[in-house]
Design goal:
10 helices, 8 strands, eight-stranded parallel beta barrel, alpha/beta, globular, TIM Barrel
């Protein structure tokens, strides 16, 4: 497993505020940024385009949470500059197939989000056969903090990048990155009184600064 990717999840509704926090995080070493679903719903594809323009050398993830029109929404995300976009694991196989096909035509990646999924392991094994590139084991904001680390071990044999999202902080991230390929960190930074210092603490905790 190579360098763990630490994405800053910008689950905000103001693009101006999101870019300010992202700039602070970039200054201390963040290289991956997520245009969160609330930001995309509030600001549209301008959120993705702005992150791409601001950080041309960074990896940009558009958290579309697509459930239908897989090809269309993938095209929207990738044409705006995203490297990765998300489709929900609970969406129809046809939607995921269309998203994967479009991603591969762009040379980009599809991330499958497990939010709300009951039987994660069996469903992800099914989806692995459809060519998905990443899995995000996701505990939603309304649900709390991700702690189901045994799921990572159960899915590792699939040969797909595995990530975690859900209440990750500087005190919990070490356990996550010892197992995962990528991690999404949001509230620990975006809700902090000092986002730049909190971003620095996150990277310091995993030895990236």
């Amino acid at each position: 497993m190579g360098r763990v990717e630490v994405f800053l999840s910008l689950d905000l509704t103001s693009l101006k505020e999101a870019l300010k926090i992202a700039r602070d995080a970039r200054e201390v070493g963040f290289k991956e940024f997520e245009a969160g679903t609330p930001l995309i719903k509030s600001e549209g594809m301008m959120a993705v385009r702005s992150l791409r323009e601001e950080f041309p050398d960074s990896k940009i993830f558009a958290d579309m949470k697509t459930m239908d029109t897989g090809s269309l929404e993938a095209s929207l995300a990738f044409s705006a500059g995203a490297d990765i976009m998300s489709v929900m694991a609970a969406s129809p196989n046809e939607t995921i197939k269309e998203a994967v096909k479009t991603a591969e035509s762009w040379g980009r990646e599809i991330l499958v989000d497990t939010l709300g999924l009951k039987d994660v392991v069996e469903r992800i094994k099914e989806l692995a056969e459809l060519g998905i590139h990443r899995i995000c084991l996701h505990k939603g904001i309304d649900e709390g903090v991700f702690l189901e680390f045994e799921l990572i071990d159960q899915l590792r044999e699939l040969g797909i990048k595995i990530g975690v999202a859900g209440g990750i902080s500087s005190s919990t991230i070490k356990e996550v990155v010892s197992k995962a390929d990528f991690v999404m960190v949001g509230r620990a930074i975006t809700k902090s009184k000092n986002p730049k210092e909190s971003a620095r603490e996150i990277l310091r905790a995993v030895g990236l600064t």
